[in-house]
Write a structure and sequence with these properties.
By secondary structure, the chain is of the alpha/beta class. It folds into 2 domains: 268 residues, TIM Barrel; 80 residues, Beta Barrel (Elongation Factor Tu (Ef-tu), domain 3). Strand 3, helix 4 and strand 4 form a beta-alpha-beta unit. Helix 10 packs antiparallel against helix 11.
Length: 429
C-alpha cells in the first residue's frame, strides 16, 4: 500500500518549537475522546480504546442530520459507558435563540438526571442556564472560538471545567494558554475541518436556509461552484478543476498523529477525534490508532517514534488528504482544490458478532457485499490485524452460500486465527 500521509502533512522530523521551555516534564496522560454518532458507534469507540465519548441528542447539538440519541438511548449510552469506567459528554452547542430557552432548560435537567459527565456548550446564555439549573460539568465548545488565554480564563471563571480550543491555534499558542489558565484544555487531533473560523459559518444558511449554527449545516463549502459575470445574467462559466480553483472552500482533514509527541507535551488534557457523522469503520480504525500511539508514547517517551502501520490504518478509512492544520504554524495550505470527495482504500464489509473457537468460525453481520474466494482482513479491538481468504460461507439457516449481498444479514465463515468480537472485516488490498 502506498502511504501518503506523511508527505501530505509535512516533514514529521521537523522541530516545531526550538525552545525547550515548551516541554512539560511528567505531563499527564491525556484523555482520548471519540465521536458517538449513534449507539453502535459509541460502543465501537469505547471497545476500541477511547477513554470518553461525546454525543448529540435529537435537539440542540450541531449535527442535526446525524442519527443522534433519543432520551431512552441516552440512558442506555450512559449505562454502557459507565459500566466500562469511562466518561460520556453531551453536545449542547447550538447558538440558542429565545424560542430555544424553555426546551433547553428541560433538556439540561434531563441530562443531569441521566448521568452524563459533562455538557459541551458554546452559547453564554446556555452556559448560564446550565449553571443555574444543574451541577453538570461544563466544557466550552470549539464553537465558542477560544483563541487566547484571557478568553480561556474568562470561561473558567464563569464555571467551565474544560475549554475546547479553536482549531486555528499553533502549538506555541496552546502551550501559552496552558501556562496562563488552570482549566483543562482539549484540542481536535483528527477529522474534518471547516473553512470558517471555528466552524462558525453562515454560508449554508445564506444558500439553503439551513443554519450551521443551529446544527443544520448542508456543507455548502464542499459544493462545486460556477462563475457568472454580472452583465451576463444566466450565463454560467465552469470553474476548472485544477490547483487554481473549483473547490476553493474545501478543507483537508486534520491529522496530528505524526505530531503526537508535541501535542502531548503541550499539556492538553483531552485529544478529540471529529466524526459524529462518520462510519463505525472510521471510528474504530482511528480510535485504535490513537490509542496505540498514546500508550506507546507513555510507555517510552524518549524512544517514541511513528509506526508505518498506524499511518497505513488511517489511510484505510474514508478521508480527504491530511494536514496538520495550524498546529505546526508552518503556513501550509489546508484546502483541496480538485475534488470534494473523500477517498478510502479499504471497503468495510462487516462486524464480527460471534466467534466459535471449537469450529474456528466467525459470525459476521454484513455491511458490504462479500463473496466466497474474497480476500479480507480483520481489524481487532486489541489484537493484530490479520488477512485471509473466505473459503466457505453459510447463512443464518446454515445453508451454504456464495455471496452475502443483503444488508446486515448474518453469515458464518471459517477463520484462520481466533478473532475478537467487534472486529471489523474489510476488503484486503
Amino acid at each position: 500500500m502506498s502511504i501518503n500521509i506523511a508527505d501530505s502533512i509535512g516533514n514529521d522530523d521537523a522541530e516545531l518549537i526550538p525552545n525547550s521551555s515548551f516541554l512539560i516534564p511528567n505531563c499527564p496522560k491525556p484523555e482520548l475522546l471519540a465521536p458517538a454518532g449513534n449507539f453502535e458507534k459509541l460502543q465501537a469507540a469505547l471497545i476500541y480504546g477511547a477513554d470518553a465519548v461525546y454525543f448529540g441528542g435529537k435537539d440542540f447539538s450541531l449535527r442535526a442530520f446525524g442519527d443522534n440519541f433519543t432520551r431512552d438511548e441516552i440512558f442506555q449510552a450512559v449505562d454502557f459507558t459507565h459500566a466500562l469506567g469511562k466518561k460520556i459528554y453531551a453536545a449542547v452547542n447550538i447558538f440558542a435563540h429565545n424560542a430555544d430557552i424553555d426546551a433547553l432548560a428541560d433538556y439540561l435537567t434531563f441530562l443531569e438526571g441521566a448521568g452524563v459527565d459533562a455538557v459541551l456548550i458554546s452559547d453564554a446564555g446556555v452556559l448560564a442556564l446550565a449553571k443555574e439549573l444543574t451541577a453538570l460539568d461544563i466544557h466550552i465548545s470549539t464553537q465558542a472560538n477560544v483563541t487566547n488565554w484571557r478568553a480561556a480564563k474568562f470561561f473558567h471563571e464563569l464555571g467551565a471545567k474544560r475549554i475546547v480550543l479553536a482549531r486555528e491555534l499553533t502549538r506555541a499558542e496552546i502551550s501559552d494558554i496552558k501556562a496562563h489558565c488552570a482549566a483543562e484544555l482539549e484540542i481536535f487531533v483528527h477529522g474534518a475541518m471547516c473553512i470558517s473560523y471555528s466552524g462558525r459559518c453562515w454560508l449554508s444558511k445564506f444558500l439553503t436556509g439551513r443554519d450551521a449554527n443551529q446544527g443544520a449545516c448542508t456543507h455548502s463549502c464542499r459544493w462545486k461552484y460556477r462563475l457568472v459575470e454580472e452583465t451576463r445574467e444566466g450565463e454560467f462559466f465552469p470553474v476548472g478543476e485544477d490547483t487554481r480553483g473549483a473547490y476553493v472552500m474545501n478543507s483537508k482533514d486534520l491529522c496530528l498523529l505524526p505530531k503526537l509527541a508535541d501535542v502531548i507535551q503541550s499539556g492538553v488534557a483531552s485529544l478529540k477525534i471529529e466524526g459524529r457523522m462518520k462510519s463505525v469503520n472510521y471510528v474504530a480504525g482511528v480510535v485504535k490508532v490513537y490509542r496505540a500511539a498514546i500508550d506507546a508514547y507513555f510507555a517510552d517517551p524518549e524512544n517514541f517514534s511513528m509506526r508505518d502501520d498506524w499511518l497505513a490504518e488511517l489511510d484505510k478509512v474514508a478521508h480527504r488528504p491530511y494536514t496538520t492544520g495550524f498546529f505546526a504554524g508552518d503556513g501550509l495550505p489546508t484546502e483541496i482544490y480538485d475534488t470534494s470527495k473523500p477517498k478510502r482504500s479499504a471497503n468495510f464489509l462487516g462486524i464480527v458478532r460471534n466467534f466459535d473457537g471449537e469450529t474456528m468460525t466467525a459470525t459476521i453481520e454484513q455491511r458490504g457485499k462479500f463473496e466466497r474466494g474474497g480476500r479480507v482482513e480483520f481489524l481487532q479491538p486489541h489484537g493484530d490485524t490479520f488477512t485471509q481468504t473466505i473459503d466457505f460461507m453459510r447463512d443464518a439457516n446454515g445453508l451454504e452460500i456464495s455471496a452475502a449481498p443483503h444488508a446486515q444479514q448474518l453469515v458464518t465463515i471459517p477463520v484462520t486465527k481466533p478473532v475478537e468480537i467487534w472486529s471489523l472485516m474489510r476488503e484486503a488490498l
